[in-house]
Amino acid sequence: MSAHHSVVFIVELMCLQLDIPLREVSDRCWLVNESGKLVDLDTDSKLDFHFDEMLDKVAEWKKDAAQDSNLLGNLISIFPFSVW
């Protein structure tokens, strides 16, 4: 058993002993607005897509970068949104 699995087991055991409900975590991370309500699925999908694209670009820069660069400037050049 790996160290990660040991920690997870300990947390599960503590929750069980203390009668604290344990919520299973999945790959899906629901987007909520400032009032705590779920954002509509279309908006959530668009944001998820753009976030993944930015992560892909960051991974590319990390592979190719010999030195630090301005990440925000690079993102603006790729995603020229008016919100920046």
Q: How many structural domains are formed by the residues?
A: 1
The profile of the biggest β sheet is: none
Euclidean distance between termini CA atoms: 46 Å
- Tally of DSSP β-strands: 0
Q: Please identify the structural class as seen in this structure.
A: mainly alpha
Helix content: 55-70%
- What is the overall pLDDT average? 78
Shape: flat
Uncertain residue ranges: none
Number of helices: 3
Calculate Rg over CA atoms.
19 Å
> What is the strand content?
under 5%
Order of helices and strands: HHH
Question: Key features?
Answer:
0% strand; mainly alpha; flat; 84 residues
Short description:
The chain has 84 residues and is mainly alpha-helical.
